[in-house]
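Issue: ligand-bound run for fe (ii) ion - logging full I/O for the record.

Environment: standard queue, default settings, no custom constraints.

Inputs:
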Amino acid sequence: MNKLEQFLNKEVANFAVLYTKLHNFHWYVKGPLFFQLHAKFEELYDEVTEVYDAFAERILMIGGKSVATLKGNLELASIAEATGLETKEDMIKSVIHDFKHIDLELKEGIKLAEDLEDDVTVDLMTTTRASLQKHIWMLSELLK
Ligand SMILES: [Fe+2]
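Outputs:
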């Protein structure tokens, strides 16, 4: 497996962890913003589901093997699962933290794909970064 495939697998794992984490927040968020945050976390896990699949299928297209077990995801992921103790502020901060973390990792991953002249993977990662950065901005406004 080349460095780009390894890198993309880490992000597949991160999106898998986020999928469960965002469901956790969707189910357990409490308080006066319940309806907004419940819906926002659902919107985010729906989007994460799409990029999770897109990144995994991109690995297959370039001849690699995508991580496809929960155990494998937890081993490869660079973000943490939910603790179950988060307040709604903690939840928002945690999503901002994870999105920023993945955004920075993708910035590095883009360089790997550029070295291989894999412009389609560069495009996938750039599009994903644009979306993550939009959510980071909106969620950060919510905390002010
Ligand atoms: Fe639901």
